[in-house]
Amino acid sequence: MVDVVRTSKRLSYVLRHHPGCIGIALDAAGWVDVDDLLAALAAHGLRLTRTQLDEVVASNDKQRFAFDESGTRIRASQGHSVAVDLGYETADPPAELFHGTVERFLPAILADGLRPGRRHAVHLSADVGTARTVGGRRGRPVVLRVDAARLAGDGAQFSRSANGVWLVDAVPPGYLAVV
Ligand code: HQG
């Protein structure tokens, strides 16, 4: 039996942040050949069949990984810290989006706005519940409402990842309100 959660965490680590730790490289859009990935993982202690990989990808609670159309390559759908261009098209966001964080970050966020930190983009959720879960990873969650329509109207480019996360470069403080 494959441990899907543990395997997903390992895949996130490799496909978003540290492909070099198992000796692979991602292409410019974040893809890697599935056979190369499985061989590299096996060489570093994680033996996984293609069927087991399919199971991890399909059962992932947030659909973090995607195969290309031919099924020969795989990538993380968002969340990278390494340089990749995921190629998502610019999309009109809903009027409001949400960001989950914790109290201790609020003074900095309300002064500087939301910044991507070590990731490529600020991650926003379409609903309050999801944002609360994201914030809850770090403590008691605080949810911020983003005036996405106005921010887009003022020129910010939004895109939506294959797994439904809204991405934007930054959110200045004037577009934020605590829910
Ligand atoms: C905070 C997980 C100080 C921000 C989740 C957050 C999400 C600031 C932290 C995805 C700040 C960054 C992303 C500022 C933002 N000053 N703190 N100006 N601007 N912050 O993990 O959004 O399970 O990089 O509030 O579910 O928490 O990995 O971003 O607390 O979808 O697939 O800096 O990661 O998905 O933290 O989470 P992160 P995030 P996965």
From TrEMBL:
<dbReference type="InterPro" id="IPR002745">
    <property type="entry name" value="Ptrans_KptA/Tpt1"/>
</dbReference>
<keyword id="KW-0808">Transferase</keyword>
<dbReference type="InterPro" id="IPR022928">
    <property type="entry name" value="RNA_2'-PTrans_KptA"/>
</dbReference>
<dbReference type="InterPro" id="IPR042080">
    <property type="entry name" value="RNA_2'-PTrans_N"/>
</dbReference>
<comment type="similarity">
    <text>Belongs to the KptA/TPT1 family.</text>
</comment>
<protein>
    <recommendedName>
        <fullName>Probable RNA 2'-phosphotransferase</fullName>
        <ecNumber>2.7.1.-</ecNumber>
    </recommendedName>
</protein>
<dbReference type="Pfam" id="PF01885">
    <property type="entry name" value="PTS_2-RNA"/>
</dbReference>
<keyword id="KW-0520">NAD</keyword>
<dbReference type="InterPro" id="IPR042081">
    <property type="entry name" value="RNA_2'-PTrans_C"/>
</dbReference>
<dbReference type="GO" id="GO:0016740">
    <property type="term" value="F:transferase activity"/>
</dbReference>
<comment type="function">
    <text>Removes the 2'-phosphate from RNA via an intermediate in which the phosphate is ADP-ribosylated by NAD followed by a presumed transesterification to release the RNA and generate ADP-ribose 1''-2''-cyclic phosphate (APPR&gt;P). May function as an ADP-ribosylase.</text>
</comment>
